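Researcher: We're teaching a course module on how sequence relates to structure. For the next exercise, students receive a sequence and then see the predicted structure as tokens, so they can try to spot secondary structure elements on their own. Here is the exercise chain.
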Amino acid sequence: MSSNTLPRKQPTSSQPTIHFVQAVSKLTGGMVLGITMLTSSVVAGGLVGLAISFRNLPDVRVLRSYAPTETTHIYDIKGKLLASLHGEANREVVPLNKISPHLKRAVMAVEDSYFYQHHGVNAGAVVRALRANWQQGRTVEGGSTLTMQLVKNLFLSPKQAFSRKVAESVLAMRLEQIFTKDQILEMYLNQVYWGHNTYGAETAAQSYFGKPAANLNLAESAMMAGLIQAPESLSPFVSLAKAKQRQAEVLNRMKELKWITPQEEAAAKKQPIKLGQITSFQTSQMPYVTEAAVQELTKRFGRDAVLKGGMRVQTTIDTKLQRIAEQVVAEGHESLLGQGVYADQMALVAVDPRTHFVKAMVGGVDYKKSQYNRAIQALRQPGSAFKPFVYYTAFASGKYGPDSTINDSPVGYPDGYDMYYPQNYDGSFAGAMSIRSALAMSRNVPAVRLGQEVGLNKVIDVCRTLGIRSPIEPVVSLPLGAVDLTPLEMAGAYATFANNGWYSETTLIVQVTDSSGNVLLDNTPKPQLVLDPWAAASLNSVLQTVVEAGTATAARLDRPAAGKTGTTSSERDIWFVGYVPQLSTAVWVGNDDYSPIGYGATGGTYVAPIWRRFMERALEGVPVQNFRPASDFPAPS
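Model: And here is the predicted structure for the students to work with:
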């Protein structure tokens, strides 16, 4: 070995580790680089994809020349025009300086308090919304700005999707590059939906408060701003209590933002609210019908499609019967007042049992004074008019028939922590009697007994089969009408009895087409046999006895008719629901505030005559038709 050659140094025990770390570092560095490059490629590809996608987004510059959409026309069953609806038909566009500063601040307070600070998208609001929604496990807060709401309403589908939200954000930022903040706020306040087919701040102010938007005070502005969240359910025309509650939330938010003082908040909460009247549908030939049709269409197609989609809507309404119904309600109300019956409202619904088409609908005594449609919105107790559902269930069980015996004697049933002892209207008991007599004389105790024997849940099942969708609880007093139902539900359910158990969905709409004639909805009846024919025929027979010799003799016609009176406790609601094979009609009388009508006011005494007047006029020229007897059908085993 030469002297200038040094011996190789032996590795220490730590050197293998150093080499391993170095190797791993090289490997890891390569992986990180690879992953980074891959991620960058994915992000870049995604951005390219989004860019390509966004090239197809609408050009927001079209708002410089924004044009109205198509008008929807509503007709009666014979093609007579009833109303024309349009998204812009009930809108008056006004400049921003013609809108109250109170309303501008109130809207921004609850919809987008950072409106003048962001550029279309508020990242902080999005993060807060995501956090709140994650904490609650559901959507409780949105992150949309006013600008995003505007482009969503004008350009995008309401479908909840990430892609739509991204598109919404891009369009909002584009909009903010082209228009000033004041221009965007002006467009928003003129575009936003305020309820009752009212668009834009000016028309909404005129409708809700009978004044221009420029003259709204703080209290009115806060109430209107609160409606944007849910304009139909929060409307003061529907529930002033809910509108006031939401108003308080808006005022509190304005105070938190220091846009108003605590003193201004308190004063606004105490400010009396003087409501105007709903201005939508005032030109309709039949406003109660039009509103009900729009409600049914909206459930199916959405409000924007109805008001902006250029639909041609054929309703089921027969104008001749509708005019008769309106006249009978007006005359009937006047007659009741003359007899000392203190009832401020009435509703009438007539349904064709063969099709379940609504032929006439009156939702109140005077639409100009009250736009509340009691035919479809008022949930009232039907009293004894509910009993036929119990008796049909008994007949369908195969254990009872019209001549079966039932006891009208004292009885008690557990009801929660108490006992329930049903009483008859006159306080007496008649002992053993036939089911026909018990229903004809509207005895309460037999109905409650029968409900317990057949099972209240089975009674509820029958109601659901008949198309009743309102909540029903199996309380002991259910057979006496301890449930809230609408006149439309009652008329539709009885129509199935009239048609011997054949059911179609009750509707106001025959057909809907677009402006080009393409069919969007076809409600041609598709009858289904949902009841036992023998049981239905047996009930028809018993309910004829109610009219011929029972509590509803005032409803007698010159043809076979069946029906049932209804009177609730304290005389708050009185009814008569009856039918012939070609027409089922429900008439309700009562007060909106649930105050008693008057001692001794019953459906048989006061409502049956009104029903008779309508049916006599409606059935002029209609051939007399008999109900099919139960003997035509096999009895259930």
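Model: If you want an answer key for the exercise: Confidence is low (pLDDT under 50) at residues 1-53. The first helix runs from residue 15 to 54.
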